[in-house]
Amino acid sequence: MATLTYRDALNAALREEMQRDDSVFLMGEEVAEYDGAYKVSRGLLREFGPRRVVDTPIAELGFTGIGVGAAMVGLRPIVEVMTFNFALLAIDQIVNAAAKIRYMSGGQIGCPMVVRGPGGAALQLGAQHSQAFESWYAHIPGLKVVMPATPADAKGLLKSAIRDDNPVIFIEGEMLYNQKGDVPDEEYLIPLGKADIKRPGKDVTIICHSKTVAPALNAAKTLSDEGIDAEVIDLRTITPLDQDAILASVAKTNRVVVAEEGWGFAGVGAQVVDVIQREAFDQLDAPVIRVHQADVPMPYNKHLEKAAKADATRIAAAVHQVCYRN
Amino acid sequence: MAVESPARARRRGTEAPYVDQYRDWLRMMILIRRFEEKAGEAYSLGQIGGFCHLYIGQEAVAVGTISALRADDYIVSAYREHGQALARGLSSRSVMAELFGKATGCSHGKGGSMHLFDAALHFMGGHGIVGGQIPLGAGFAFAARYRNTDQVSLTYFGEAAANIGSFHETLNIAALWRLPALFIIENNGYGMGTSLKRAASITDLHQRAASYGIPGVEVDGQDVVAVRQTTDEAVRRARAGEGPTLIEVKTFRYMGHSMSDAASGTYRSKEELDASRQRDPIVLLESRMRDLDMLDDAGVQEVEASVVAEVADAVKFAEESPDPDPSELWTNVYAPEPH
Ligand SMILES: Cc1ncc(C[n+]2csc(CCOP(=O)(O)OP(=O)(O)O)c2C)c(N)n1
Predict the structure, then answer these.
(1) What percentage of chain A reaches a pLDDT higher than 70?
(2) Of A278, A273, A275, which is closest to residue A288 (Cα–Cα)?
(3) Is residue A115 a contact partner of residue A64, using CB atoms and an 8 Å limit?
(4) Of these residues, A29, A60, A80, A134, which one is catalytic?
(5) What share of chain A is helix, strand, coil (3-state, %, to 5)?
(6) Which of A72, A130, A283, B71 is deepest in the core (most CB within 10 A)?
(7) Which of B109, B164, B266 is the closest to A34 by Cβ?
(8) Ligand 1: which residue has its CA nearest to atom 21?
(9) pLDDT above 50: residue A10
(10) How far apart are CA B113 and CA A165, in angstroms?
């Protein structure tokens, strides 16, 4: 096992897949000469040259669409968006083209591409730079949405995303890039659509993904000191959603908190709750509680920003609620 | 009495319309410079958070363009807008307080460095999505025309933003509808780490005006007088119903793209940066004024002292101002319900 940052784990995945398959290439703003705005693509230009590591102008709609076109005729583009806030400019090509090509062509033409980059809030970047958009993409049939929480998951999931024959929206966490973790030395893939039990437990299930995994684990630690044994399920992939993993855990614990970074209204957590109430209603000992960001644009002021975000304290409080503790 | 040299008299002649404004311009340019230096310091101290993009080197653009506007004209910009906000007349207190995220800031602590707004001054914001403000600027011009006022709208963006789709869509419509709009490309050579020549098929961006059938002008952005002259003509055209102008202002940014990248090293050399500093907009205006016997060392010191005091006061004000009340998290999401 090597200890890698989330950033370097992603970098390793890109490198290995580009070495394996010449049709894989990386394209986006500042990915080549600048080594990546967040340095995820560090060193790739030197290794693979400008044919396969391609700097673009600031033109998200154009270059993402070029990626879609290239994918339709057999290349495997990885389009880096500097952040998913800016991918909004490309959403027409992602939603109206990438997600629909296979269906509209009656299966003749596919779109094997990855759109990846950081999503969600960092620190005090204000309303236009602090948005978690996973539920937007998860809403669109034809797309897969992947959101790794740890370095090992980042590597294994990105490799699978690159090999997947569908358009995959791969949302990284700006706040996770420096996080370190063990990453297996040997080659491995993590299948898309499989959740992961990040901590087994029997009293309550905390369902989370991406940036809420760490606070959920922190909350679980605090709770265990109080005698509450929480299971933490990391969805890892939003679509396809691993309903089996969710339901197995509910059957075990009978109590659920769903935590996510994004806004609550029509968010990913709402979908999870729908699955649970439909398939496991009789197994619930309490209503499911959701923890999410305040349904407001993100404020700049640091105190307001902190108050807007889901954190370990709020997750623990929600667990108290579903356990009917104080 | 000394006889005036013919060269100096000529200069006096051509500059006559503006000379009485030089002193104000100089003070404003120095204010912007010192304000930005202080903002950089405050950022390093953690008093300012998030992203912070400094304007140092580009001061003549804000001052030369905004001085040509009336108080009821509209201005919209991107995230590198502290200098434009000050030139528009936002107080250094309200801008600094906003950078500090305080309730007294021009956006009440909710916007931060990238999102300065002042409705009363028709300063319609700093915007963080590259090119996102370009259609908005045309919208203000549309409204002016709709209401039959003779207001104009001025939109700033970087040369890299000129490659985004909204630039083309907006300029086409603005030209088609002859909107009273000025589109100002602040060409500082680099969009983050990418030089213009690696991002644009033609690098003389003002030439793109030809595809819309509107005038495209290039101007030296280090020369505040030249910037002002060019803007005056574009404003005149806009007010007269002759439609938009695309102005490419050639300028330099001395600092990194934001506080998180170095001024030189990775994507541009120290030599290139040093060369660009040779034509400093403040020094150029100062020497113009000295040539005209409008300024001496004591005069410069006087301006510096008053500006330094103003910036220090702004920082103190920002430091002492309160954070927004926690309940503000939930305000301004929707318009208040009418009672
Ligand atoms: C749509 C979009 N894509 C990418 C970014 C990230 N980004 C912020 S500023 C910038 C460079 C813009 O350069 P330019 O327009 O020349 O303005 P300057 O920074 O030089 O003032 C980039 C790529 C963004 N904010 N919005």
Answers:
(1) 100
(2) A273
(3) yes
(4) A60
(5) 40, 20, 40
(6) A130
(7) B266
(8) B158
(9) yes
(10) 42
Across all residues in chain A, what is the average pLDDT? 98
CB contact under 8 A, A300 and B50: yes
CA B137 – CA B154 distance, rounded (Å): 6
Q: Compare all CA atoms of chain B with the CA of A129 and give the residue at the minimum distance.
A: B128
Task: Report the DSSP pairing between strands A256-263 and A289-293.
Answer: parallel
pLDDT of residue A198: 98
- Ligand 1 atom nearest B192 alpha carbon: 11
Interface test with B, best of A86, A300, A303, A304 (most B CBs within 10 A): A300
Per the CB < 8 A criterion, the answer to whether A78 and A116 are in contact is yes
The Cα–Cα gap between B170 and B208 comes to 13
- Strand ranges for A51-179 from DSSP E: 53-55, 76-80, 114-119, 144-146, 168-173
| A163-183 tens-digit pLDDT | 999 999 999 999 999 999 999
For position B262, what pLDDT does the model report? Answer: 87
CA triple B44-B48-B54, angle to 5 deg = 75
Sign of CA dihedral A207, A154, A95, B165: positive
> Which positions in chain B touch A37 (Cβ < 8 Å)?
192
Residues 112-151 of B with CB under 8 A from A: 112-115, 127-132
Is residue A89 lining ligand 1, measured as CB closer than 6 Å? yes
Label the pairing between strands A230-234 and A196-199: antiparallel
Q: Look at B51 and A125 and tell me if their CB atoms are within 8 Å.
A: yes
CB contact under 8 A, B323 and A301: yes
**C-beta of B257 in contact with ligand 1 (< 6 A):** yes
pLDDT (mean) for B162-170: 98
Examine the pLDDT at A289 and tell me if it is beyond 90. yes
Q: Is A30 one of the annotated active-site residues of the chain?
A: no
Residue pair A129/A85 in contact (Cβ under 8 Å)? The answer is: yes
pLDDT for position B16: 63
Q: How far apart (Å, rounded) are the C-alpha atoms in residues B280 and B60? A: 9
- Cα of A147 vs centre of ligand 1, distance in Å, is 25
Query: How confident is the model over A171-221, as pLDDT tens digits?
Result: 999 999 999 999 999 999 999 999 999 999 999 999 999 999 999 999 999
